[in-house]
Design brief:
623 residues, alpha/beta, TIM Barrel, 3 domains, nine-stranded mixed beta sheet, 31 strands, Glyco_hydro_b, glucosylceramidase activity
């Protein structure tokens, strides 16, 4: 007896008694992303955190659309925050504004109710390349002089340059802001070239530098500004030719992190230490000496990344090697819907936070002392009328995340989609609302549906637009998946699953190659012709059940199906068939009448050599 395959996106079928929830919908669009023309003046933006009509979630349908499955029961990292920087260039321009306009700008960025709700800010300890001042640290001495006792240590320039007062004003706008700091260079006398520009940290000053950082944290704390975390050196593998920087090798980094943690502990400070703070391509090699060392590992709270070389998957590599370390994307400006998708990739690779870099230059692209020509910042100030400024789409595109994904949210399992249709990343907020951020990078509108816990949201997203969809999970239908290890996420193995095979070596395995959700999937494959059964037998109460699986295949099999048997009746199947299935499709057997207290659910392949099939997110629920 066979039941037809259905390709809708529900992860569970529930009872009809639950009232259908309604999703809040917000859109933001790109406009000339990354174009220097933005420095010439504002441009019209189609959507800017623009609320749309709510969309009611419905029972699953057979409507054809890109399906994004969202499963809040599978959870990943806890989100810390999303935001930008208050480096000195931005502070310099804010300080030229009237108090009212400065407050308006900070509210546009930080206010959780009326603005973009950003809640994580990066500041610099000492100067960076984005400044309108002479380069400085907190203990500068004339050439040839040193200060190992830090007698001349002071953050007074940060006070004089309005950095401290601006951060205080930011905290007044959003008291839940978290501030983390990054130094561009130690004092010149701690380096082998005696300069803030380039050079290498002298190892003899590692204990002194640890004390220097601890005192900077305390000095800010005395101003009423708690420093949540510190990266011990911005871009430690790069010696810039014309702005503050320093080479700090991996051995020095380990020693510095341990020394700093000892300083913090001895002074009752809870500031976190984030290692690295540089590009994807060098991360694993750089942090390994620290995180494979017992003292270094204990002293390190997280690993910070920049996105100027390499791939975001390096964050997953580091996280998988050391699962107890937070992963942070601390510096990368992004533009347009491709930038919003890049953010989704950061989060899908375990980043617990994101920070843009440089928030507001003026229309003359000032002040800055970087080597190159900066791209447009998310806010731009008129160089001739300081209270006149304009916001770029990036304020709103980042706001699609920062306003709705709250601190403490969990990233949850969701299918990514594709750049040719829509892409996605999803979260579960502490208040039990689900937030799905959907990105349309294409030149045409895209129809899609979000499928979660028995509900379906069918929507159309305009071209070059990001949509955020928020709904309350407590209204979801109640249905429990009765299968153990249904997505193979428990331990990345076939635990709880049985096997039968014929005419070949064992032809099933769990792997990480393109899962539907999570990190793992089941694959049927052999170089020779094979027959393979992968199933699970469960004791269940008598009643009516529904079985399903998400599958894709190469095609070419003699038979490929989902089955249910041993329930007290004839075997039921949902035929996947011999044709190729390019994208994951859900195959469902409805109305299984269990009368003997047992059921076996599984998949069967009768395949030719090198045929493959992939399976994920099996489900058995009572109807």
């Amino acid at each position: 007896m066979t039941t037809s395959a259905l390709a809708f996106g529900a992860l569970a079928m529930g009872t009809a008694a639950s009232a259908a929830p309604s999703a809040q919908v917000i859109w933001s669009s790109e406009k000339n992303p990354g174009d220097g023309a933005w420095f010439n003046g504002p441009l019209s933006i189609p959507y800017a955190l623009s609320p749309q009509a709510n969309i009611a979630l419905t029972s699953p349908t057979t409507t054809s659309a890109t399906t994004l499955a969202v499963d809040p029961s599978v959870q990943y990292q806890t989100m810390l925050g999303i935001g930008t920087s208050l480096e000195e260039s931005t502070v310099f321009n804010l300080s030229r504004m009237s108090l009212a306009k400065r407050t308006e700008v900070l509210k546009k960025l930080l206010d959780p109710a009326t603005g973009a709700g950003m809640n994580l800010l990066r500041i610099t300890f000492g100067t960076s390349d984005f400044t309108g001042r002479q380069f400085y640290t907190y203990d500068d001495r004339p050439a040839g002089q040193t200060d190992p006792s830090l007698t001349y240590f002071s953050i007074q320039k940060d006070i004089d340059y309005n950095i401290v007062s601006t951060i205080k004003q930011a905290l007044a706008v959003n008291p839940n802001l978290k501030i983390f700091a990054s130094p561009w260079s130690p004092p010149a006398w701690m380096k082998d070239n005696g300069s803030l520009i380039g050079g290498k940290l002298l190892s003899q000053y590692i204990p002194t530098l640890a004390t220097y950082y601890r005192r900077a944290i305390q000095a800010y704390q005395a101003q009423g500004i708690p420093i949540y975390a510190l990266t011990v050196q911005n871009e430690p593998l790069y010696q810039a030719p014309d702005y503050p920087s320093a080479s700090v090798d991996s051995t020095q980094a380990r020693q510095l992190i341990v020394a700093l943690k000892n300083e913090l502990n001895a002074n009752g400070l809870s500031t976190r230490i984030w290692a690295f703070d540089h590009n994807f391509d060098s991360a694993l090699a750089y942090v390994t000496p620290t995180l494979n060392d017992a003292a270094g590992n204990a002293a390190t709270d997280g690993v910070a990344f920049h996105d100027y070389a390499g791939d975001p998957s390096s964050m997953t590599q580091v996280r998988n090697a050391w699962p107890n370390k937070n992963i942070m994307m601390t510096e990368r400006s992004v533009w347009g819907t491709s930038g919003a998708d890049r953010m989704a990739q950061y989060f899908r690779n375990w980043a617990a936070g994101y920070n843009g870099w440089v928030t507001m230059l003026d229309s003359n692209i000032q002040p800055e002392k970087w080597t190159g020509t900066p791209g447009p910042t998310m806010l731009i100030q008129s160089a001739s009328s300081y209270d006149n400024y304009w916001a770029l789409p990036e304020v709103y595109l980042i706001g699609q995340y920062s306003k709705y994904v709250k601190a403490g949210a969990k990233r949850i399992s969701s299918s990514y989609g594709s750049a040719s249709t829509v892409t996605n990343v999803s979260f579960l907020n502490p208040d039990n609302t689900i937030v799905s951020v959907v990105i349309n990078q294409t030149a045409s509108s895209q129809r899609f549906k979000l499928a979660s816990e028995g509900w379906e949201l069918l929507a159309t997203l305009p071209a070059k637009t990001v949509g955020t969809y928020v709904w309350a999970r407590e209204n979801a239908p109640t249905a429990t998946n009765l299968l153990a290890n249904p997505g193979f996420e428990a331990d990345g193995t076939l635990s709880s699953w049985n096997s039968e095979w014929h005419s070949a070596e064992l032809a099933h395995k769990v792997d990480t190659d393109y899962p539907y959700t999570g990190n793992y999937k089941l694959t049927h494959y052999s170089a020779a012709a094979y027959q393979q059964i992968s199933g699970q037998t469960k004791a269940v109460a008598n009643g009516t059940y529904r079985a399903s699986v998400w599958a894709r295949s190469s095609g070419g099999q003699r038979a490929l199906r989902l089955y249910a048997k041993g329930y007290g009746g004839a075997e039921l199947t949902a035929e996947i068939g011999s044709g190729a299935v390019a994208g994951y499709t859900q195959y469902i057997i409805n109305g299984i009448p269990v009368t003997n207290g047992n059921i076996e659910v599984g998949v069967y392949s009768d395949a030719n050599a090198q045929n493959w099939a992939a399976f994920d997110q099996f489900e058995l629920v009572k109807q």
